[in-house]
Amino acid sequence: MSTPVAVALVHYPIVDRRGDTVSTAVTNLDLHDIARTARTYGVDRFYVITPVVEQQTLVRRILAHWHEGHGAAYNPHRGEALSLIRVVASLDEALADWRSFAGPTAEPVLTGASRTDGIGVDACRALLDKIPLMLVFGTGWGLAPELFECGWKVLEPIRGRGVYNHLPVRAAAAIILDRLLGTSA
């Protein structure tokens, strides 16, 4: 599959456990793990979305450590994966950059564990055969409702064996990337 694919990790607008719209903190583990997974599955870009300038600065410091600092020599593979990251202030900014890279037909596909709607993995894979996609993941307790009102496609949620469904975002990203881009052995 050669159609470009991006991943976006949204830190705002996000809902918290009470349902309030908030901005969540960037975590080092999410950056490293999602970037490594994205690189493994041939993702072209990984957008880290936060309007908080201090959080953007933190991400850039982490990236500098692995691109120019001690980390660059210590583990070049990590720097290679982290080179996918683009830090932006909004999903609109990420989508504009993605479309400038992948083409004007590129579309976002939202994710959410609490969704009851959405297209299946097979339909999403078929869509990816036609147009570049940006898979949009939320932090906290998920993407804010206003994002689901934009008319964008939504991927049906990952379902485990029981009713509990609160995966860490880095695990959800890995599962979805494997289902969409993985190859059968």
Automatic annotation (TrEMBL):
Family matches, as CDD domains: TM1570-like
Residue ranges of every copy of the tRNA (guanine-N(1)-)-methyltransferase C-terminal domain listed in the record: 5-182
Superkingdom, taxonomy of origin: Bacteria
InterPro entries: RNA_MeTrfase_C_dom (IPR019230), tRNA_m1G_MTases_N (IPR029026)
UniProt name for this protein: tRNA (guanine-N(1)-)-methyltransferase C-terminal domain-containing protein
